[in-house]
């Protein structure tokens, strides 16, 4: 079945550094991918829609200069957390609609846990 | 914007008991998803409901969407410790493109 991977699964970085998270659709093409974040013991919040070949669409309140999204190919979207601070520590999950596949199924990556010291 | 209310927020049941989790929308839903998650781990997609009155099952878990497509319930029969986790409902806010707004989640504990 369709699989979405994320890399890395965990990352710890120092405050002020930038961190790149990759989301890949392994056996299907995804023109769109979604990025979510989850704070401890909270629900998931949609951050942005990643569009292959064009600019990402950000949800209200999400800083586009802080969370850079690049969807350079039909199987890869990257989220870069720039100048990370401790408040950016969170669990980041991507999803990739497989529109040519089963419309009743969704595919999520396993998530990336970011800890900023 | 689409708001989803989920209840209860927390649930503790004895193994073998049945339970129900509810998800209510302020607007008519295009599609309603149910997921399971353990914190710090990815989401497990359970099922999607799209038609008014639709009911689907996944092992011992059954979900229904009401006729007005504004309320869904998730029912677990004869709960087991393996059912423990966070259950989230989600609403498709993109007309079928799987852009999801999530409910707050229901934390389920099953006591052996």
Return the structural class of chain B: mainly beta
Total strand segments of chain A: 10
Cα-based radius of gyration of chain B, to the nearest Å:
13 Å
Mean pLDDT of chain B: 91
Q: What's the order of the H and E elements of chain B?
A: EEEEEEEEEEE
Counted beta strands of chain B: 11
| SSE succession of chain A | EEEEEEEEEE
Average pLDDT confidence of chain A is 92
Based on secondary structure, the structural category of chain A is mainly beta
Secondary structure tally, helices of chain A: 0
**Individual helix count of chain B:** 0
Q: How much helicity do the residues of chain B have?
A: under 10%
User: How many strands, which pairing sense, and closed or not: the largest β-sheet of chain A?
Assistant: 6 strands, mixed
- Poorly predicted runs of chain B are none
Query: Roughly what percent helix of chain A?
Result: under 10%
Give the CA-CA distance, first to last residue of chain A.
37 Å
**Structural shape of chain A:** globular
Fraction of residues in β-strands of chain B? over 45%
Strand neighbour order, sheet with most strands of chain A: 2-10-9-4-5-6
């Amino acid at each position: 079945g369709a699989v979405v991977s994320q890399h890395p699964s965990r990352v710890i970085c120092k405050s002020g550094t930038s961190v790149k998270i990759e989301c890949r659709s392994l056996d299907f093409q995804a023109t769109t991918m979604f990025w979510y974040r989850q704070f401890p013991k909270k629900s998931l919040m949609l951050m942005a829609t990643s569009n292959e070949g064009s600019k990402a669409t950000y949800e209200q309140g999400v800083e586009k200069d802080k969370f850079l999204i690049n969807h350079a190919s039909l199987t890869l979207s990257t989220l870069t957390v720039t100048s990370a601070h401790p408040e950016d520590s969170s669990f980041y999950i991507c999803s990739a609609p497989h529109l040519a596949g089963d419309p009743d199924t969704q595919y999520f990556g396993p998530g990336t846990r970011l800890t900023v010291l | 914007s689409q708001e989803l209310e989920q209840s209860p927020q927390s649930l503790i049941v004895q193994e073998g008991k049945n339970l129900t989790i509810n998800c209510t929308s302020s607007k008519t839903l295009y599609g309603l998803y149910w997921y399971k998650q353990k914190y710090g781990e990815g989401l497990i997609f359970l099922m999607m409901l799209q038609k008014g009155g639709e009911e689907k099952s996944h092992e011992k878990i059954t979900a229904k969407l009401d006729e007005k497509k504004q309320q869904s319930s998730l029912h677990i029969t004869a709960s087991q410790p393996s059912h423990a986790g966070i259950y989230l409902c989600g609403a498709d806010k993109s007309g079928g493109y799987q852009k999801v707004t999530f409910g707050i989640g229901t934390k389920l504990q099953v006591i052996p």
